[in-house]
Amino acid sequence: MELSHIHYESIKENALHGRYITYEHISVLLGYLSNSFKVTEIGRSVNGLPIHSITFGHGMNKILMWSQMHGNESTTTKAIFDLLNVFGTDLELFPTILKNCTIKIIPMLNPDGAKAYTRLNANLVDLNRDAQDRSQPESKILRNCFEDFNPDFCFNLHGQRTIFNVGNTPKPATISFLAPAFDENRSISESRAKSMRLIVAMDQVLQKLIPGQIGRYDDGFNANCVGDTFQMLNVPTILFEAGHYPKDYDREETRRFIFMAMVSALQTISEKTLKSLDEKAYFNIPDNNKLFYDILIRNAHLIEPKKYKKGATIALLYKEVLQNGKIAFDPVVEKVGSLKDCFGHKTFDCSNESDFASLKSESFWNEL
Fold this sequence. Notes:
By secondary structure, the protein is an alpha/beta fold. It has helices spanning about 10, 25-30, 75-90, 95-100, 110-115, 135-150, 190-210, 225-230, 250-270, 355-360; strands at about 40-45, 50-55, 60-65, 100-105, 155-160, 165, 175-180, 215, 235-240, 290, 290-300, 315-325, 325-335, 345-350. The relative contact order is 0.13.
């Protein structure tokens, strides 16, 4: 089945929308899943919230996925439930995947962090730096699941900030991938080569949808990170980073591209075409860079000549704040300078009369 044949809007899980996704949101959906899906409580969080796995398919290739290890990274969770809708349909769009793969998904590893909308768990520990100590119940749950399931591939599903661009281009890194290192030298083991080839397969699909908006995440080795640890255990592991798409702060467009990436990866595994891909092409994907701000105000000296040097640029980043069950985006001044090589998701040039008028109408104007 070709991805182009999927009518995404018909399978999109509309009960999940925006950035604030909690256990309360997904628990209802778990109850709606058909008997084709095995839903199992595999443990509890620090604050006692259930952590579930969802298992489906009956093939030899075993794929383990987990999302919201960082509680405020919810885009991939939304994409997971879109994926479940595809496999839950009577049309059985991808019978080859179901025949050749067994898929186990932990849709929300850190429900406490999700509720508080924070990266950390309730003990203020970053679970993605706890792979060796496994000091937290959530870390133990993931490791136990990994050892019990004995996967052939792992998908480590995350989200990244709006600051990332692709290479030195003004393209946002809408999706970024990483084949984690398994040693200090960033050597290419057999498992890492498989990770790279699978990323190449996804990149080929995504370049047709969002050309130039796929980045390669930094591969600095850290044994405390889960991806590096599982790669060290010779299990091909892929980091997915859901990033920014223009004007898509709710990450509704990005979730679609994550969904497409996951399906294409599963197809590649199930159809056994991984060997036909060249891991060297992985290095053709440009590095992530950090050249974006949410808002740039060029020629700020025209606002206040005494405060800003000629040609100065004010750079603002949004601070994500949980307010009444929704995420508000509050602009905060991050930097002031020439910033000639930086990009803005929204840019105002005070030397332009129209831009200047638009800037004064913005709600954050009086806070500068």
